[in-house]
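ingest -> validate -> predict -> emit
validate: passed (alphabet ok, no gaps, 296 aa)
predict: started
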Amino acid sequence: MEYSYYMGCQVPAQLPNYDLATRKVAESLDIKLIDLLESGCCGCVIRSVNPYTWIALSTRILAMAERTKHDLITICPGCYTTLVEVQSILSEKPSLRKRMNTILEKESLIYKGEVKVKHLLTALYFDKGIEEIKKAVTNSLKGLKVAVHYGCHLNRSHDYQQYDDPESPHILDNICEVTGAESVYWPLKLWCCGGMTNDQELSFKLGNMKLKDAKASGADCIVTACPFCQIQFDNRQRYISSRFNEDYNIPVLTFTQLLGLAFGIKEEDLGLQYNRVPVEELAIASNKDERKRKEI
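emit:
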């Protein structure tokens, strides 16, 4: 299985751990990722400022993916939603696609509308399959309770809705539970994390409410599929805790890090050392069965 691979902006800038874990998990599942070198931003953060530039940036990425002759995988729901939406716009407006291709001629690129865009989550779930993922599990995470967080963009993409129920999603829960971990119920599961709002006060209030709810659920950790949510819960957790006089100390993992632990991949190869909230105790808990076997 081969895919062109687009990690977006936030991952290379702030979350090398998400990328490291993604590559190791893909390797374990015999999936080849073809990097889109010099791909740039998808434009989602400027769409309201300059829609034309937003479309041009996304079209360029789509054209680069088409050149590999493989479906495009992204690990950012924001990028996924953006690229899928731009594809839809270009299919409905041939004249706009022609204008975009005129711009792309300078790089000898052309967009024909033939590439399929997927989030890594759906690619693993439907292309590789739950049973194949289960075969790769060598280190059961039984006993670990996780608060699964989908984020906003993934569930709101019209393309994703063909895979899952946006009101009651299950794909990420199922993938997490393949590891042996338990996906716990938490009332604010589908609420926004607040990571992308321009209102800083609102952002931290939402982050605090989510963290408090996850902790109250009895979860040992939060598992995300979105870079912005990972940054909000992990990178900013100490600040949020201090601001609201709380002591959360909840480890936050990308779903590929969780899978990697279950696959028996070394913690440093999954980038756990780059997570802001220490995950040592969580990692030790995940390897308890292996330690017991060694002691015996």
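Residues 24 and 282 are 19 Å apart (CA to CA).
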